[in-house]
Amino acid sequence: MASYCMTVTRLRLVLGEGARRLHVSAAFNAKAKVAMSRFEPGTSISYEKLHENIDIVRKRLNRPLTLSEKIVYGHLDDPVGQDIARGRTYLRLRPDRVAMQDATAQMAMLQFISSGLPKVAVPSTIHCDHLIEAQIGGVEDLKRAKEVNQEVYNFLATAGAKYGVGFWKPGSGIIHQIILENYAYPGVLLIGTDSHTPNGGGLGSICIGVGGADAVDVMAGIPWELKCPNVIGVKLTGSLSGWTSPKDVILKVAGILTVKGGTGAIVEYHGPGVDSISCTGMATICNMGAEIGATTSVFPYNHRMKTYLNKTGRADIAALADEHKDDLVPDKGCKYDHVIEINLSELKPHINGPFTPDLAHPVSEIGAVAEKNGWPLEVKVGLIGSCTNSSYEDMGRAASLAKQALDKGLKCKAAFTVTPGSEQIRATIERDGFSKILRDVGGVVLANACGPCIGQWDRKDVKMGEKNTIVTSYNRNFTSRNDANPATHAFVTSPEIVTALAIAGTLKFDPETDYLTAANGEKFKLEPPNGDELPARDFDPGQDTYQHPPAESGSVMVDVSPTSTRLQLLEPFDKWNGKDLEDLQVLIKVKGKCTTDHISAAGPWLKFRGHLDNISNNMLIGAINIENDAVNKIKNRLTGEYGGVPDVARHYKANGLSWVVVGDDNYGEGSSREHAALEPRHLGGRVILVKSFARIHETNLKKQGMLPLTFADPTDYDKIRPDDKLSIIGLATFAPGKPLKGVVKHGDGSQDIITLNHTFNENQVEWFHAGSALNRMKELQ
Question: Ranges for the Aconitase/3-isopropylmalate dehydratase large subunit alpha/beta/alpha domain (predicted)?
């Protein structure tokens, strides 16, 4: 353990020739503290404290620790007294910082305002990346977004200034890329209001996606609760080469574990193969770990991370990490709950989909599989970038393939879009010529934003309902996800494979074996992609896009107009009335997969993320009704007429009838959006009863005073009919580990008694009693 380390004591913005330059002056002290408030005032993390906590827990458990355990347990609020059992106990943690993207930050900041607290207790930032729709190109789309979303951007900027939250303006880039470039570092515990927050695991961080209410807890200085995660080990041997990329690692893992195989676990990569992957490549793998339901993913600190830290202006932090490396790698002999082994030297390029990110295929086989299943072979659009794959290395490798095509007189047969992950990446690939190559081959460079990855895409080349294929380097490909068209077959793969397939124009092309025809008729094969891990010169930071919160904010006004259609101040939910929930009407019995996209769609609905009543008009409009296999068409049991799900829910609420949703496995997988929990609560829902939940959504429901329950016997799902009523019995003695009783009342007068499980702990039971976690916070003030 080092006797000293460097503390960042001053960091300011200096504008010169339009560029943002970071100036760090540092001092040494004996307490091993790293001030990670890169731009905003706040607390600091102590590597010394991390080590102390790790040492306490290791001695208590009397065994070697995984890296995941070191970082998580190193942030325990009470390392001496905390009950620690993987997969069973709830941990009370002290995260180092909070990050919020603009779509979820609206509700998070509205909740924080409702708390009555004057300032955030930990360093926090807002990132404007979700509200920019891809239409024409980066410059035009950004300009239009600033005009259309002016009210929301102004709210977020002023709320940030008022409460001490840093504000990254529209055009700055995607939240996860900004975090990697500025805020992630080995050993940090960061929570973010986006499901792909685990991206930071590529820099040895534990970064976890949460709902806005969780973010409010941390910003309020309250210990944050997390069920003690299991740890899945992925041992990597061999090395990446040729057409195989870091993306193929997680595509392969997704095929093995499926979309729920990582639920309740941290995925920890280790082994000699790790060193063959760049830092940004590791981030790609961790990012898409969200698609297997993992709490997060992480890599051990190594020289690739050190190089990245040095290149992004954080050599001081790299030096500290070197001093404390023993705490930033797993202990020898540590045990994992499950181990997967992947030989990178044998791994082949993969492509996953359509309609789910765990349907894995080797690229060499996808053409035949598509023909067999009747999937469209023609690739209509290839899309590279997004938070998953928009690094300098990604863009360089894609450009190397585009250059080969151009040299042979070819352009992309498919439409082709490029999304830089940040302003720094955009400016650097523009300077180094990659953007020109990608444009010359037929690409359109979009704004530094999420864009089509989250459905912010004004697509014009196909009609709604027209069957077609797109290939992306994104992370998620649920039905209608990218373009709102349920007939679009979306496949996720690496940027290199996307580029190759866009050039070829068909899924029936394996770049490792197949030939293209040059403009002169000559047959040729693409050489494997190549690209530098990091730019030879320093990154070009591009335009200054950061707003620092003022030291004094008493005069800052945060206005929310009562007539606004975009923003709405929150009213507290009702407390529990002390009685069992009797005769809840089944609103909808959902058939099959029901993600947060089905529960609260994104795309055009993003504009209402700050207005609970308006956004509630999209509640469950994508879910399939088992009664008629239709979407957004359910029977109103009071009127006998059919209507949209939100309309029927509103009618029930107006008539004092509370309701329940019945669902299938892994209910609520996908995005961290808490609107999928807020909307049912707002429209009169009390219970969500399913076979199993995705982690984030289950927590979000608890936070809003809902009862997320699961069938003790999954076959009881079949006992519930769409016109049934359900009573929840036993709430007077509602307690951790104690099941509840469900009385299912059928229309013919018969009944079924079923056992209902839950995962509430004592604090969460208090949330239910108070009506929500926010209500409970106010009670304790």
Answer: 69-505
